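Note to self: keep these together.
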Amino acid sequence: MRFDETYSGNVFIKSHPNYEESKVVLYGMPMDWTVSYRPGSRFGPARIREVSIGLEEYSPYLDRELDDVKYFDAGDIPLPFGNAQKSLDLIEDFVKKVLADGKIPVGMGGEHLVSWPVMKAVYEKYNDLAIIHFDAHTDLRTEYEGEPLSHSTPIRKIAEHIGPKNVYSFGIRSGMKEEFDWARENGMHISKFEVLEPLKEVLPSLAGRNVYVTIDIDVLDPAHAPGTGTVDAGGITSKELLASIHAIAGSGVNVVGFDLVEVAPVYDHSEMTANIASKFIREMILGWVK
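Structure:
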């Protein structure tokens, strides 16, 4: 695996040209092989990069600019179309290499299943790991229509792998009754509908811990993020998610990796969703990487 050049031509604004000198590695996971409604999230990472040119390099929220953090954009991982298991294996191998080199992996999806091999690889290095999960959906199914490799299963997979009590979900407003029952019976934290205030209540208990954060863009209301595969009414605003990102930044948790998934440009006619996603990535890099 080579890191002396990116997989693809477009890079996120102000990315550093040298992998070895970078603290953070940004990469795309262009996979939507298991979606159950609208495909297209495999094009998300490339579009997020393209619209990032419209970002300011400075964050007035954090009083930092992108030059303050050296991050390398490795481009999109080449994934075999339609082969979910092989794609997940390639993602896991990539992230293990990044972690072995002492760097922080920052992923862009792609459907949410791509987060599963990343979280598994991060847990292999940090065995006290906690997961913070922002989403409209529980993603706690064991399978979807008989398929265990599904975008509806990644949080169940990681919860069973690291223990449900180490998983904290926020903004959830959609899922099967059995999923909510399983979470409650097994001690997993689920905050229904709301994000910021419940997050602030939880963060003190995670201070000092290694944390991985995964954000499904559909945690936002469709009015703020129409460009996603499975929209669900009743979500939060982009302002609230920004405030949540900043709350994590000031909480004392040690963020060891993070991702943002499910941006689907084909439904994003105003490019609102991609632009919001690129701003979130800027704020996460500047807020969570010390």
